[in-house]
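Morning. Coffee machine broken again, so started the prediction first thing and wrote up yesterday's gels while waiting. Chain of 330 residues, entered below exactly as on the submission form.
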Amino acid sequence: MADVAAAAGVSHQTVSRVLNNHPAVSAQTRRRVHEAIAGLGYRRNVVARALATGTSHIIGVIVSNTTLSGPSGALLAIEQAARTHDYWVAMVGLQSQEPSEMTDAISHFVDLGLDGIIVVTNTEAAKDAALAACGATPTVLVTSARTPPAYSTVDVDQAGGARTVMTLLRGLGHTRIAHVGGPDGDLHAAARLGAWREGLPADVDADALFATGDWSSGSGYRAAMEVLARPALPTAVFAANDRMAFGVLRALSERGLSVPGDVSVVGFDDIEGSECSIPPLTTIRQNHNALGRAAMDLLLEAMERKPARSHRVPAELIVRASTGAARRGT
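Came back before lunch.
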């Protein structure tokens, strides 16, 4: 910085003001400083600046399983929201939801002295590990898990979205509604499963209409074939995500069942391609942009030591051609 000041013929303080966009610098002086910066190839020492100001303007984001639309959509939305507030994002993508892996990631960010951390997690164990390791670093969780009052949380209303699906299908006359659920231990899968069970008629055997997948289209296909092999066929299938719904559509086609003539199908997520399936898939859209903005707003509040709070982003039903009225007599 001293070299820049000498080259521009100004003081060290003036260079600092230009770098920090202070208004009390003339346009001519600002231009000379920027020319000197370009000529010398000067770059700010971010570490030194963080030590001097007490802020790095970098936040950490921890996401598990970035191959899935939910976590990857949340990550992109958080990064975009952070940039609007002049924050950069350091990201760790976890290979699993093991508590030890979460602890290592949180500890790494704490050691770096980042301004705050956003954790995207769908399991209780990973959530607990994050809270145990974050210490005094402001931390926000994107999760449906219950957390201590000191921590803010945000998530799309998973149960609310699933209830909307059940309301739609029941309104179309469906009662034998099968569910292809997500993996055990996943909080989003559990919320969607719970809403499905609540929405079934009391005299329907839920266990006979349920099978578990692992979020992949192949697991959706296998789960659907398992349900279709049972004595009473469903008139509708609610898959816990769109990928598994694609597998359900294949299974129904192989069984010679039309959609929605014989069986209606609904997914969850509204991933790219869901409008191009055959037929186009009715699904639940998660507003990741709103999720990212809310997560960043909550983190900024945590940095200012404001009281923690929880926020739920509404889910949106997208009705397409894969749902229709139940056939009479079924």
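The two ends are 78 Å apart (CA to CA). Going to sketch it on the whiteboard this afternoon.
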